[in-house]
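User: TonB-dependent receptor, Sphingomonas colocasiae:
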Amino acid sequence: MNRTVFHHSILRPALLALGVSSIALSASTAVAQDVPDDAADGEIVVTARKTNERLQDVPISVNALSGDQLRDRGAVDVKDVLRSIPGFSFSGTERGLGNYNIRGVSTVASSPTVGVYLDDISLVTVATGFSGAFDPVFFDMERLEVLKGPQGTLYGGSSMGGAIKYVSAKPNLRAFGVTAAAGVATTAHGGPSYNGEMVVNAPLVEDRLALRAGFFYRHDGGYIDNGPGSIRNANQSSAPSPVYTPAFQPALSTRSASNQNGSDTYAARLSLEWQPDPSWSIRPALFFQDYKLRNPGQFFLGVSALTSSFRIAQPTDDKAGIYSLNIDKDLGGVRLTSLTAYFDRDLNWVRDYSYFIGGLVAPLFPLTSRNVSDSKTTTFSQEVRLASNGGPAARLNWIAGLYYSNQDDRLVQTVTTPGATPIIGTEIGYFGDTFTNTKQYAAFGEVTYAIIDRLDITAGVRLFKIEQVVDILGDGPFNGGLTQVDGRRSTEKGVNPKFGLSYKLTADNLLYASAAKGFRPGGPNRFQVNPVLCAADLTRLGLTAAPDSFSSDNLWSYEIGTKNMFGGNRVMFNGSLFYTSWKKIQQQIDLSSCGFAFTGNAGSAEIKGLEAEGRINVTSAFQIGGTGTYTDAKITTAALGTPARDGDEVQAVPKWMASAYASYGMELGGDWRLQMRGEYQYQSKARRQFERLQSVRYADGVTGTVPNGAEIRQGYSVVNAFASITRDATEIRLYANNLLDARPLLDTDFSIGGDRSTTIRPRTVGVELRQRF
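Assistant: Predicted structure for TonB-dependent receptor:
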């Protein structure tokens, strides 16, 4: 029997009976040689500081969920669990197109504020309206870690707000095992979902060589219907001035489709673990994922719920391969690590631009316009580091390394309108070809020294250089004719320092404080904005043309916190206070009158907040807990040429986030055990756009402004429930996500041509059978 399987099937009920929290079980999937001796009681082990540490011993804010916990919740990707992680929020609902933020460090710009990593491999790509953060599915994952605050010392410039770490399961050298799972779910107002997976772990040479391989497939049923109907345009009034009544007009769609936003995800993993002797670990690995979305999850506003009237199909195909070679060598007191990786991502989509183009040029509204966007990113990276190997009891622990990456990113976009030649002189209204090459060089190090027993001081630094080259070719009437930029270059050099102090009152009570700098490079704007077509918005911003480039931004973040276990692990409480000063914020500035956007520097901000999480084992079978976050993130100095004002909230940051849960376990007889859990999640309202007003054209031809209905995203609550029945190596999991069928409007869009929004997945109830052999 697989050692990991044995550990789950025997140890999990025992730990629950002893009152160990569910979050403390996640280390059980780790390979034995990767878990320090002092974590043998099953407490979670993380690698937030690129070394193995118990979660409660890490003197920074980290949240972690185990593979078991992810499966218990029926979670597909990180969006399904982020509401239960303090201070973690996002904008964008589609996989591969989201923007994540941690602790209020939130922008929509070409460079994200949160790093995304799979086994320490950076998955960060250029973010545009046509590409966002890559989201691996939760397949054969050992755990998910979310690191709070700037992580630039060990993880680089895109982690100024924090980092998301996916940690995959490693091959086991000593035991053969097979895990198979299949599940089915139903979504309210939508179609069925189903999934299947299989993972094989096979030692090939005892204690020397093992293989781990698996395949995953999931179909997520859609819940948006498409059919003939009308479309509302908040930028037009059907009444003369000053009466404002949003205008409706026939969508001119003949396309009918039920549950059109269904998707299919295919994933495969292959890894080898080779240990020529116990001092070596050589691990080549491959991860492949292909996500096919039939149509986006947008629905029209002002019409029947969860319906749209798009004229054409709008498929998305997000395909990625991650290839890596990790080599570890114990040199006796020092461990050498080399991580070589290649990340290849193709994101291709089609979107219906009929209403958008028809809003720009009214005679084109009866014609069908199609936008085809192809993004391709390839990244080669190499990291080499040395780390002390003395363990947590050593007086001095340190890590030092070098990092290099070379990323090519290309976006080709074509907007065509068959039949448009008599009106605009061509059927190709816009063509854009943007190529970006980014090279990063860095040297980093971090040292922790025990000044006295239980009092540690930490200092770290990252020296970096980032070089960017951008080539831009644009053409078509909506581009203002042919424009070309060849070899627009930018170079940034900088230093990211970090300081920390931690004191252990007892083995289970930790106090810590830290200060760290975060940084993002500036660079050239990747789109040529038509100054004639966008004149109204540019004038409103006090500009005659969009800027060619934007400056770097940076922040300093300060935190004090505590991590505590009381009463023999019956009570857990962690809390922290944080303050961030953010300068020259990079922010995407949308020009609603013409549909273009550029990145500008939106001034400065201050972020103040607190987080708390706790858990009480009321009895050996009954547990309650929860989290709470308060974040006051405000613009302190708004820059000229942006719609932000002093005192505005930073975008996409809810002031309040909270969650609560209760869990109960019981024996059913015949060696079967039942574990139940219910949870409540809440997010308060958040600013989506800085603009308080939107432009309107009245029926009599008069232009004016009205309050921007998309300025604020309202708050919402979600209730989930889970249950699992286990016996030895058999698990049956039941889950109900969004039990009360909440439908908040998340990404509301009032851009020219039609009002639309997105929401979270409606109530979904599912069951999964998992068998280990």
